[in-house]
Amino acid sequence: MKLLNTAEAAEALGVSARRVRALIDAGTLAAHQIGREYAIEESALNAVRTYGKAGRPRGKAAAANKAATRAVKATGGTPTSKAKKKGKK
Q: Does residue 83 sit within a domain?
């Protein structure tokens, strides 16, 4: 059982130490307070580890646009812009 401080946990998760403390305060990340510091078990990081890019989830429109772009690339075509559809340059 390896114990980490907030800075080490933040580096392992790819977030800031402030975010790690916020996760602890919210009860999402299990930790033991020792004086003013927190001791976090390395195995507890798996409970909050996320996959993919960090940040706000994509909206429905952005996800649909990404799926359409993938479909065009898979067929070997090129996407056309609205300007080309209207006959503009």
A: no
